[in-house]
Amino acid sequence: MNANELREAYLSYFEELGHRRLPSASLLPENDPTVLFTTAGMHPLVPFLLGEAHPLGRRLTDVQKCLRTNDIEEVGDASHLTFFEMLGNWSLGDYFKEESLAWSYTFLVKVLGVPPGRLGVTVFAGDETAARDDASAGVWRRLGIPEERIFFLPRADNWWGPAGHSGPCGPDSEIFVDTGAPDHPGCRPGCACGRWLEVWNNVFMAYEKTASGDYLRLAHPNVDTGMGVERMLTALAVLEGGGAGGDVFQVDTLRPLVERLERLSGRAYARATRPFRVAVDHLRAAAMAIGDGAAPSNLEAGYVVRRLIRRAVDAGRELGLQEPFCSRLGEQVVEVFAPVYPGVAGARERIITLLDEEEQRYRRILTEDAPRVKKVIRTLRDSGASLISGEQAFDLYETYGLPLSLTAALAEEEGLRVDEEGFERCYAAHQALSRQSAEKKFKGGLADHSEASTRMHTASHLLQAALRQVLGPAVHQMGSNITPERLRFDFSWPERLSEAQLQEVEERVNAAIQADLPVTMAIMPLEQAVASGALAFFGEKYGEQVKVYSIGQFSREVCGGPHVDHTSVLGRFKIIKQEAVGKGVRRIRAMLEDGGD
Ligand code: SER
Fold it and tell me: For the segment 541-561, what is each residue's pLDDT rounded down to a tens digit?
């Protein structure tokens, strides 16, 4: 089975069970305060898991692009990936454990043909927040899973979420495929020996964790499930006996990248799996993130993209690639995913250009800045040092961008050691700071539905409308991020706006606020919405039925909400600054003054 067949089989199976199919949302979360990237299919659905009505109803299904970097150091083995695709189905306060687990079982056994004897499951063992999940265990028994293949595990294994520091979460039940070997005493799903492949997670989201750490019971418990496309295909290959040892890189959304890299490097994958996997995984992730509007930088999501590309370049150099190669793999990523995810084909040039620019920049650092670092190291040595402290190494890293391994190699040539642990501590502290500031910046974003954020959200619609009035219809939203304090709006536009243009935009938004326009919502098919002139940002999660928010005659957009009822509560709109975010994308930061009723 290939990825396309699996996606189709899954989505149509759940459609037949009354679920509506949603398109994948952007990898860069819209107005979500808690994470830099979309890390799971549930992510774009957070407001709906917390109770907001979804225009398509209470049963949803989709395949979602996801990016997680918490295991980035593990990439290089047979199973870890940063970018992956997640199939999911959701019950928004509709069905619960009984149906969810039975449908998962039937899909695996009847549709995918997994032998029931190869399944193992885990359920939540219970703790002070929630009781032992006997209900799920009971369902599994009734479905025929024998007692010795039902494992009760603690919170560390069987509690999912929230995705960031707060949000919906709950006990889960995970489904594993038993690869049969190696078998040893005490082996259970989750065991590091790799015998059990996790393929599906059914989360029973009955709780909301608040920012202060309390668990509130949700009025309507939800089901959130997630199946990793690459994992499932690998498990199926193993069951068929052709799984190449459970190597996820044999899946047809990764294999063409491996082959392209074999051609570019003249090396055989089988003889250098680690650098092949790192380069392929990281460039797939970077290309897809760039396709959704990210750009390499030193900040937040951009910093992750930069790191992914630079690590891929290091891996490529290990394979002997002296010439730039990243954009060639980027091209291949576009080929793989253009038929699957809208927006990828259109982002082709941007992906190729940004990958290439970043690779060139990094290679320049390696060839031009490495000698400078060497000079610094010599000075240190001449002053009598034998050790480069963690702070000094981190400083060099920050200034020149050299990876630690390279600094250490250069230092060694001069007879110096680097305090690598000290470096890691500085690095971790820096990461924590940057995460904290990201969290602070995003704090109370739209996910908390605070009034200030809601006002800001409506202001972002006015801003887009005003930009289009002033600059023309080529302006399209590329992303947005909102906190109670400010809004950030990214849009397609090739050049800097003049002061006069900015002022004009600001004045038009303020005129719309002063006119106290009514904000109204209607639910209609997407086609009708677009035909009526509503703007639809492709990064958002649309299904066939969408919510359309109109602000008088001034603005009309497809959007999940929420919004204010009338514009005068926005107060005064003020543009703080404009920035360039990448080729053809500009960013405006703005705020509201004196808002509120
Ligand atoms: N949110 C859960 C996960 O990511 C199920 O989709 O595993």
Answer: 555 677 889 999 999 998 877
